[in-house]
Structure formats: C-alpha cells, structure tokens
Write a structure and sequence with these properties.
174 residues; Rossmann fold; 6 helices; globular; Protease I; 22% strand; alpha/beta; two-stranded antiparallel sheet
C-alpha cells in the first residue's frame, strides 16, 4: 500500500459536507494512510449536512501537527466554523510553510483564506465562493481539480474521484 507510512489530519466540525469528508477519508485509508479525524472535542459525534455522523479521534490541542504528512479540509458549512479556531489556522499555515499537501474542496477555501495562504495561488472551489477566493489574491479556475504545488483544490462532490486521485498522488510523492 503506497500510503502505509502517511498520517493525515481530516478536520471536522458540525455540518461538514458528508461526501467531502467520508470519501477522502475512506479513499486514503484504502491506500493504507492513517487518517485522524480532528475536531474541537475528541470522541465527540459530529453530524454532516445530511446527518451522517463521524466521531473524532482527537481534539485540536492534542495534535502535534509535525507528526502529520497532510491535511484535509472538507466543505459544507463546517469551514465557516473551522476558520474561527486559531489551532486550525495554525495547522493550515504550518502545512503550507512545510509544503505538505493541503486538500480543500467546495467551501473549504474559506479556511485557506483565513489562514492567508492564497495570494498568488491557482485554485478552485464551489463557484459560490469564487469572489472570496479571488479577493484573497488567488486565481480561480472552474475545473474539477487544480493543483498548485502542495495545494490541491476541488469544486464539489462530483469532482471527488479526480480530487482524491490528485491528493493521494501528491501525498505519495512526499
């Protein structure tokens, strides 16, 4: 399994987009990666927009970000909440500084905007936050997946297969 030695943070908060969390987590685990579900509280059940539950493994303060190879930010309404946690902003900034893969889909771009890491970057997202993404200094593309170095971005659930292929390929390079 090509990702057997990889450790990934998957951020969790209420009203995540169910498919945009679960599909990436299961896809990476299929390839052997360890994916920790991380939220404000450990061992808490959070619910997606459509009611699919997830129980977190760790809370933000328990995470040593240096021990991880990548981070995933799901979409839905969760990113608007996630970007308010200083720990989440620090995780994303750290991954950016270390040039470790950052996966963001749909509304997850809000977290990268709040981390102030998009200036000069090529990205995509749900068209609903296109203006937010461009106002943060990025160039937005209406494509299923946009890869700019270690940042892998995608638009919405139908784009999950090419998004996760690109993310897993990037993670395997590290």
């Amino acid at each position: 399994m090509r990702l057997a030695d990889k450790h990934v943070i998957a951020l969790v908060e209420e009203e995540f987009e169910d498919l945009e969390l679960w599909y990436p987590v299961l896809r990476l685990r299929e390839e052997g990666a360890t994916v920790d579900l991380v939220g404000k509280e450990a061992n808490k059940v959070y619910h997606g927009k459509y009611g699919v539950p997830v129980t977190t493994d760790r809370n933000f303060t328990e995470v040593n970000v240096d021990a991880y190879d990548a981070i995933l930010v799901p979409g839905g309404w969760a990113p608007d909440k996630l970007r308010r946690y200083p720990e989440v902003i620090e995780f994303v900034k750290h991954m950016d500084q270390q040039k470790k893969p950052i996966g963001q889909i749909c509304h997850a771009g809000w977290v990268l905007i709040s981390a102030d890491i998009l200036k000069g970057r090529q990205v995509t997202s749900t068209p609903g936050i296109k203006d937010d993404m461009t106002n943060a200094g990025s160039t937005w593309h209406d494509e299923a997946v946009v890869i700019d170095g270690h940042i892998i971005s995608s638009r919405r659930p139908p784009d999950l297969p090419p998004y996760m292929k690109a993310f897993a390929d990037k993670l395997a390079e590290k």
